[in-house]
């Protein structure tokens, strides 16, 4: 919270008839102006004073961030979730509707705030060494199959499909800008969620965008701008809750608050997928050529 | 052959022992993984039922430091049941009638137990250049069912994604720009430079598209089964590929023009498109033309059939269409229906498939083969209808 004193314009100073140059010291100016107003006993001047006070404190409040916009919250949240670069080992566990579990372990690299990302599977054996490269926020996706040394490019219709049968789509994992680019956001207020005071936002899919959902409700922790819960509503039916993402175990890694665990609940299929970091660092300098076909195979 | 196999066994053993036993402070540990794959084939053909089973064990070794990677895999295949087949049993009666009776045993094939080094390579790379020496996977082209620019591998249209064996070669990949790379490959399969394979590929990414130009010169083999003679001739292939999307549909294509030293030049191309619906339903269509193929099934002769079965030609008919429909009924079970339609002779084959990831590291795959063409056509019912049950346990 940074308090910025408002510098009043010269015309306004002259309006008060003050003899001294106080423009560089506004609070002295205010005190002098109050003195002059009340000293004169003029009703009009008193009304004017109250009016000025309202404007003054309104402006101050805005400058201090009390009326932060939904767009600013989403932008800060996106930046928090997508640091410039990262390298991680992640574990993804899928729980099917029949309570069967499948666990995948993969290395994940990202650059340019998540615009480029690369996943390389380490476990289990049936997907070992497979990799997925996503560029331009998952607008371009390539998959590498080591058994045949073949790279296949996926069209954008695959973006919304499940990754390895999980409840995360390619878009969920590879798109860092979807909240800002594909949705209009509105701040609904503040609400406690998961024991934390949060901003509650409603995001509605923009027309002609690639928004995969009709609307989202996002609870963003006020203190560090980490989303704690995101509710995803079906693309065709805005009343139908399709998925819920719950992010927990927020830790500060290399100075950046990070939810170490996230669970996506699929409300329609009655399945869930949890993802957690085994290792994570943001303090890396990844070469651009890691995010190429050659990088996928290495 | 026996001495070659023994030598191979010896090489594999030395490599494995060297990697496992020799202490080396600079080397990373060797990662050992692979799978065991039992397979059961039931076939109903010409009123008879057959079964042929196999057990396949694949062991992969991998070790890497920051710039050097070693990879190899050994495959051991065991066969049971009906192991000996005669290719003539699957050909139209009219064609078989052309074969002299004393030559019929020549077309017998027996599946013998095998142990072989499938791949063994060293990859040396830095941030922009990668050089791979040894027996390695080479997969070219953007097509799913077939690849006109890929003369290294022959895909089984009934099972196009199944792994292929490696090819002995030296390969150099150089990344020029972010999505622009060139590849040079030398495949020393013959006795001298002139007769060995030399390949150049330029790959460029533009927008949501990737484009590839390919040039490949190699020695092509063609057998005349009437005179039982083999022709070797130089073949120069010029190919191009693209993959991208138009109006939300995935689109790709590849074409090759082949300049032949002795026989007629020919072209081959494939175009394809796919789409995934919101429900998860995936649909793929491909059209493939091979100028070398025949336009009427009445013109098919024994050379056409046997070159196809021996892998010397990709198709018998000139025009084919492929379709694949896939739908995940649960997160662990996927249903597929592949169909191949020979436009030139009006025959078709259908391959329904169930893929089930039954346990964390175990996949089960059940595949049917149904041929729906009359005798003499590419996909005729004389080929036999059957079921393949395959399990694969990874370790």
* Percent in strands of chain B: over 45%
Order of helices and strands of chain B: HEEEEHEEEEEEEEEEEHEEEEE
CATH architecture of the largest domain in chain A: Clam
> Any idea how many domains of chain B?
1
Give the assembly state of these chains. heterodimer
| Global structural class of chain B | mainly beta
Main sheet properties of chain A:
13 strands, antiparallel
Domain count of chain A: 2
Main sheet: strands, sense, barrel of chain B = 18 strands, antiparallel, barrel
Outline the low-pLDDT stretches of chain A: 1-41, 56-65
Total DSSP helices of chain A: 7
Please name the two chains that share the biggest interface, counting residues whose Cβ lies under 8 Å from a Cβ on the partner chain: A-B, 44 and 49 residues
Number of strands of chain A: 13
How far apart, in Å, are the first and last alpha carbons of chain A? 47 Å
What does this structure look like?
Chain A is an alpha+beta fold and 298 residues long. Chain A has seven helices and 13 strands. Chain A has two domains: 10-63, no CATH class; 70-297, outer membrane lipoprotein receptor (LolB), chain A. In chain A, a hairpin with a 5-residue loop joins strand 9 and strand 10. The relative contact order of chain A is 0.13. Chain B has a single domain (2-394), classed as Porin (Beta Barrel). Chain B contains three helices and 20 strands. In chain B, a hairpin with a 4-residue loop joins strand 17 and strand 18 (347-359). Chain B is globular and about 60 Å long. At the A-B interface, strand 2, strand 6 and helix 7 of A face strand 1, strand 12, strand 13 and strand 14 of B.
């Amino acid at each position: 919270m940074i308090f910025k004193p408002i510098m009043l314009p010269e015309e306004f100073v002259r309006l008060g008839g003050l003899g001294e140059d106080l423009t560089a010291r506004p609070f002295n100016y205010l005190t002098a102006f109050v003195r002059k107003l009340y000293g004169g006993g003029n009703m009009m001047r008193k009304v004017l004073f109250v009016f000025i006070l309202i404007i003054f404190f309104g402006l101050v409040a805005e400058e201090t961030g009390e009326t932060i916009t939904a767009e600013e919250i989403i932008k800060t949240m996106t930046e928090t979730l997508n640091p410039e670069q990262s390298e991680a080992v992640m574990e993804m566990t899928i729980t099917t509707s029949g309570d069967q579990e499948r666990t995948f372990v993969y290395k994940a690299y990202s650059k340019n705030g998540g615009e480029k990302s690369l996943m390389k599977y380490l476990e289990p054996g049936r997907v070992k060494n497979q990799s997925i490269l996503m560029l331009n926020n998952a607008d371009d996706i390539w998959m590498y199959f080591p058994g045949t040394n073949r790279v296949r490019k996926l069209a954008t219709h695959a973006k919304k499909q499940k990754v390895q049968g999980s409840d995360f789509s390619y878009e969920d994992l590879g798109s860092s800008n979807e909240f800002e680019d594909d949705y209009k956001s509105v701040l609904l207020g503040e609400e406690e969620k998961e024991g934390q005071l949060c901003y509650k936002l409603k995001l509605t899919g923009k027309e002609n965008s690639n928004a995969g959902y009709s609307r989202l409700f996002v609870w963003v922790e006020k203190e560090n701008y980490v989303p704690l819960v995101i509710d995803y509503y079906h693309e065709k039916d805005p009343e139908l809750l399709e998925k819920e993402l719950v992010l927990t175990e927020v830790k500060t890694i290399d100075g950046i608050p990070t939810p170490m665990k996230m669970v996506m609940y699929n409300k329609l299929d009655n399945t869930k997928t949890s993802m957690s970091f085994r290792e994570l660092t943001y303090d890396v300098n990844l070469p651009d050529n890691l995010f190429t076909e050659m990088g996928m195979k290495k | 052959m026996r001495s070659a196999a023994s030598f191979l066994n010896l090489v594999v053993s030395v490599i494995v022992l060297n990697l496992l036993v020799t202490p080396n402070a600079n080397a990373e540990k060797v990662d050992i993984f692979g799978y065991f794959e039992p397979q059961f084939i039931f076939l109903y053909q010409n009123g008879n039922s057959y079964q042929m089973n196999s057990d396949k064990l694949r062991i992969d070794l991998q070790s890497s430091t920051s710039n050097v990677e070693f990879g190899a895999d050994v495959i051991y295949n065991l066969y049971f049941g009906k192991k000996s087949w005669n290719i003539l049993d699957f050909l139209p009666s009219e064609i078989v009638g052309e074969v002299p009776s004393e030559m019929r045993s020549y077309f017998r094939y027996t599946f013998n137990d095998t142990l072989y080094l499938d791949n063994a390579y060293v990859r040396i790379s830095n941030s922009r250049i990668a050089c791979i020496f040894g027996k390695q996977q080479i997969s070219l082209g953007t097509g799913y069912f077939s690849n006109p620019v890929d003369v290294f591998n022959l895909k089984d249209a009934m099972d196009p994604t199944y792994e292929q064996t490696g090819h002995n070669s030296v390969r150099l990949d150089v990344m020029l720009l972010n999505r622009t790379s060139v590849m040079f490959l030398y495949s020393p399969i013959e006795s001298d430079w002139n007769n060995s394979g030399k390949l150049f590929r330029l790959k460029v990414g533009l927008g949501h598209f990737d484009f590839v130009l390919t040039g490949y010169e190699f020695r092509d083999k063609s057998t005349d089964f009437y005179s039982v003679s083999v022709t070797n001739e130089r073949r120069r292939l010029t190919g191009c590929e693209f993959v991208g999307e138009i109006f939300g549909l995935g689109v790709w294509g590849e074409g090759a023009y082949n300049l032949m030293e002795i026989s007629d030049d020919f072209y081959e191309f494939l175009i394809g498109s796919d789409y995934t619906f919101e429900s998860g339903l995936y649909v793929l269509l491909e059209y493939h033309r091979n100028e070398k193929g025949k336009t009427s099934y009445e013109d098919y002769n024994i050379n056409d059939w046997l070159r196809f079965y021996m892998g010397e030609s990709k198709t018998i008919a000139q025009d084919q269409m492929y379709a694949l429909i896939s739908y995940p009924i649960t997160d662990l079970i996927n249903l597929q229906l592949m169909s191949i339609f020979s436009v030139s002779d009006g025959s078709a084959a259908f391959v329904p498939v169930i893929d089930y990831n039954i346990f964390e590291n175990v996949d089960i795959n059940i595949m049917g083969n149904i041929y729906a063409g009359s005798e003499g056509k590419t996909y005729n019912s004389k080929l036999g209808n059957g079921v393949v049950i395959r399990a694969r346990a990874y370790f």
